[in-house]
Amino acid sequence: MDAQPQPSRAARAAAKAANSGYPESVTRLIEELARLPGIGRRSAERLTFHILKATKPEALALAAAIGDVKQRVRHCHVCYNLMDTASAEGHGLCAICAEPERDRASVMVVEQPKDLIALEQTGTFKGLFHVLMGRISPLEGVRPGDLTIADLLGRIDDPAHNLDTPVREVILALNPTLEGDGTALYLAGELERRGVRVTRLARGLPTGSTLEFASKAVLADAIEGRRPMI
User: Fold this and answer.
1) What is the mean pLDDT of residues 28-53?
2) What does pTM read for this prediction?
3) What element of type H or E holds 72?
4) Confidence bin at 165 (pLDDT 50/70/90)
5) Could you tell me if 49 and 104 lie in one domain?
6) CATH code, domain with 151
7) Inter-CA distances, 186 with 43, 61, 144, 220, Å
């Protein structure tokens, strides 16, 4: 027998609308919101009714913001940080890579753009970044080729890919998780074969904490990363 054609998303929404009692457009909005990470059906319904209660300019402003994100936001062609094409001035660089005062020989590697933002807000690092867009996780099917590792190694191998500056040091600022540590070990092996200095962020007891509430992993990192008092 010939396979029956699958109904479109709009047709499925119409069928669900008939069963739920909501108008089709409301049901479709609920279904789309429920597809977002961490948003269940009930949360999607609450968000939908919040939008319905909002004024028309407020709702359209939300829609316009979503459209702008998809149309204007791109990745920096050097570090893969997020950037707005309207402010890139045609050079394809994010605001950090475009700063001439930055130490371009020092590159800090992070997993996601949000990690870059958190580190940049400290104001203590004056080098460049590289965003992997994830971490190696075989259980989730994420392998080195799925990340921007090749682009990072390209910056090491060819200074032209690092704004015409040879990389002197790579700082691994990955999350202290099993996947983050595995990714760091993989990168360290690849980078050390290229003769570049590889360091990682210090780990240990956070300021203001007490030993009795620290986990074994935190205490082990604190002991391993101990420093002279003077």
Assistant:
1) 95
2) 0.78
3) helix 56-72
4) very high
5) no
6) 3.40.1360.10
7) 39, 44, 9, 21
**Packing angle of the helix pair 9-20, 24-34 (nearest 10 deg):** 110
The answer to whether the CB of 174 falls within 8 A of the CB of 181 is yes
For position 92, what pLDDT does the model report?
83
Give the structural domain span for 49.
9-53
Cα–Cα–Cα angle for 188, 192, 195, rounded to 5 degrees: 150
198 or 90: which leads in pLDDT: 198
4 inside domain: no
Residue 63 has pLDDT above 80, yes or no: yes
Higher pLDDT, 103 or 215: 103
Which are the contacts of 146, defined by CB distance < 8 A and separation ≥ 6? 134
Same domain, 166 and 107: yes
